[in-house]
Amino acid sequence: xxERLWLDVPFGEKDAAKSAGARWDPDVRRxxxxxxxLLPELARWESxxxxxxxxxxxxxxxxxxxxxxPSTCWFTNVRSCVDEGQWDALRSMVYRRAGHHCExxxxxxxxxxxxxxxxxxxxxxxATYTQTLRRLIALCWSCHRATHFGFAEVTGTSAEATAxxxxxxxxxxxxxxxHIERAFALWERRSTHEWRLDLGMLTNAGIKVVEPPxxxxxxxxxxxxxxxxxxxxPSAAQGEEASHNAATxxxxxxxxSTPEPPRRKFWERIRGAxxxxx
Length: 278
Description:
By secondary structure, the protein is an alpha+beta fold. It is 41% helix and 14% strand.
């Protein structure tokens, strides 16, 4: 069989691509041009995303771990800086090169909690306060939720996320909780700064990106968007209580039990955004 002429077709454009002559390969889950003569009609979907992005390190951020994005960086990421077609092309490339398996737990692509999602691995330079994209990775839904443990806290599913962390890594309850608390402590420190976003890994591949907001503007937009989105989450009202119940408890000077400070800071950030602050 001759080499396929692969296409990157966004889901919303699949009918148009099919009408123009594109065909779907169910084995590799990708559209292609069945013959060269059709390329002029299908040129808009011609694949231009390389299998390895310039400067990408696929060894960076291996395994499953809690990877909390600083609150001053929330809602500004790869997906918010590229158009739908580019994002679909990027994530499709990530899934293909991972063999349609989760790169953290190894689970094959499936439905619901086994569906694949693309996740960004960031490097944080605390000397220049630069957040640099280093890798795109395929994660199943369960691994992605555990990675974004703050979202699990907000939606009241931190117990399930913790159980998944333990199962994949073979951790005891104490080891998992210690890891989570270290991640929140790191998040707390990083969230005191405003970060410049570096998407050079994409622009050097010829991918057009929307200019990210300036660092101070990112922080403001984070608070504004959180205030809009959080009340729409069905479990948000129970999230803080579930978080506190799941967190390691320790007595304060009055003998009362309180959640660990980094988790309190997380919820203070949530409440501040809802109140219109930062």
